[in-house]
Amino acid sequence: MKHQNIIMAVGKKIAFARKTRKLTQEELAQKAGRMLNTVANLERGRANPELLTLFDIAGALEMKASDLIDVENELKKSREKEAIQTKIIMLLRSFDERALRMILRQLETLSESEDT
Q1: Pairwise CA distance, residues 30 & 74, whole Å
Q2: Rounded CA separation 14/44 (Å)
Q3: Burial of 3 from C-beta contacts in 10 A (0-12 / 13-18 / 19+)
Q4: Is pLDDT above 70 for 22?
Q5: Residues with Cβ < 8 Å from 74, sequence gap 6 or more?
Q6: Of the candidates 18, 20, 21, which has an alpha carbon nearest to the alpha carbon of residue 29?
Q7: Res 72: pLDDT
Q8: How far apart are CA 116 and CA 113, in angstroms?
Q9: pLDDT confidence band for 71 (50 / 70 / 90)
Q10: Is the pTM of this model over 0.85?
Q11: How far apart are CA 73 and CA 56, in angstroms?
């Protein structure tokens, strides 16, 4: 497991828990007794969370700190997604320019339908 992947997964869990509770980053920071930039950096995966910070944030979110660091499922999904992306890239290399343009149009259409 790459450390950065773990840090990113923990940050995503913090952000998800905060949004589920309809808190702003500022409100979470205040409840946890931390600076706003600490919460923002943790959620973006830009900071390695200190143990006590995790406990403070978990308490502010009314959850256990262990729930914030239990990221095995997220990491597994991330690895599976990376494997799929790699396979797609390998397959795309075998197509000519015409086929790639057609694939691009299909992907753009699919992306637009996902947005609605």
Answers
A1: 27
A2: 10
A3: exposed
A4: yes
A5: 9, 12, 13
A6: 18
A7: 83
A8: 5
A9: confident
A10: no
A11: 23
Task: Give the pLDDT confidence of 73-112 residue by residue, as tens digits.
Answer: 877 887 888 899 999 999 999 999 999 999 999 999 998 8
DSSP 64-79: -HHHHH--HHHHHHHH
Q: Which residue, 86, 89, 88, 69, is CA-closest to 78?
A: 86
Tokens linked to 108: 């753009």
Distance CA 83, CA 109 (A): 23
As given in the structure block, the two tokens for residue 59 are 């308490």
At residue 48's C-alpha, the angle toward residues 45 and 50, to 5°, is 135
Long-range contacts of 56-60 (CB under 8 A, 24+ apart): 56/32, 57/14, 57/28, 57/32, 59/32, 60/28, 60/31, 60/32
